[in-house]
Design a protein that fits this description.
CATH superfamily: LmbE-like
Structural class: alpha/beta
CATH topology: Rossmann fold
Number of domains: 1
Radius of gyration: 16 Å
Number of strands: 7
CATH architecture: 3-Layer(aba) Sandwich
Helix content: 25-40%
Number of helices: 7
Largest sheet: 7 strands, mixed
Order of helices and strands: EHEHHEHEHEEHHE
Length: 224
């Protein structure tokens, strides 16, 4: 059994499971305390219906339940508008959860994204996990349909950490399916078949049957 505390940060409901669903399930199975933070309400700019906010929250909780996670936190910042939100406000949402739960490991968005909300969350994660917070490790995940669409002229997501999620792929797909409004038909990247295929491809890069890929942002090591 492990006694680590883990925080997974997503700009919108479903980002967390797309990027790190299998890894979250594996942490939970190992006995780690896993928290999810959804920074925005994930709805208003896409659906123009405030009633969907609660639906998304319920989907996030169902997703977390499937992964074996009990704690989901909501920041309620405006969806698709984090580039207009003062940086300090986004910082404060993440800092609050970091302060309350003292995570050892944090997973967040990559800066190599087409989605500006994702980039803003990455920037604020760096502020919220400064050395004085005690966070030991920060990793950035890839977000299907965002990290892969940045274009060849810009910096691309580069994987240098692979987590073996053999045995957790079906759980990840089942958890993602809780987000009924976000699932798409194959070959869209946000389809169950595509997520399974990505896990197989990432696994083959690292010698696993299935894996999730991350970029190490930093790691603080006191002993070697």
């Amino acid at each position: 059994m492990s006694d680590r505390t883990v925080l997974v940060i997503g700009a919108h409901p479903d980002d967390e499971v797309l990027g790190a669903g299998g890894t979250m399930a594996k942490h939970a199975a190992a006995g780690d305390e896993v928290h999810v933070l959804i920074v925005t309400e994930g709805t208003t700019q896409q659906y123009d219906d405030d009633s969907i906010i609660e639906q998304k929250r319920e989907e996030a909780r169902e997703c977390a339940d499937t992964l074996g996670i009990g704690a989901v936190h909501f920041g309620d910042l405006p969806d698709m508008r984090l580039d207009d939100v003062p940086h300090v406000e986004t910082n404060a949402v993440i800092e609050s959860v970091v302060s309350d739960h003292s995570p050892d490991v944090v997973y967040t968005h990559s800066p190599h994204e087409v989605n500006l909300d994702h980039k803003a969350v990455y920037d604020s994660t760096l502020v919220a996990t400064r050395p004085a917070t005690g966070v030991e490790r920060v990793l950035a995940y890839e977000t299907p349909s965002s990290t892969g669409w940045t274009g060849g002229a810009t910096s691309q997501f580069g994987a240098d950490v692979y987590v073996d999620i053999t045995g957790y792929v079906d759980t990840k797909v089942e958890a993602f399916n809780a987000y009924e409004s976000e699932t798409r038909q194959f070959p869209h990247p946000r389809s169950g078949k595509s997520l399974s295929a990505r896990a197989t491809a990432r696994g083959s890069e690292a010698g696993f049957a299935a894996a999730e890929a991350f970029s190490l942002v930093y790691e603080r090591v006191s002993e070697i």
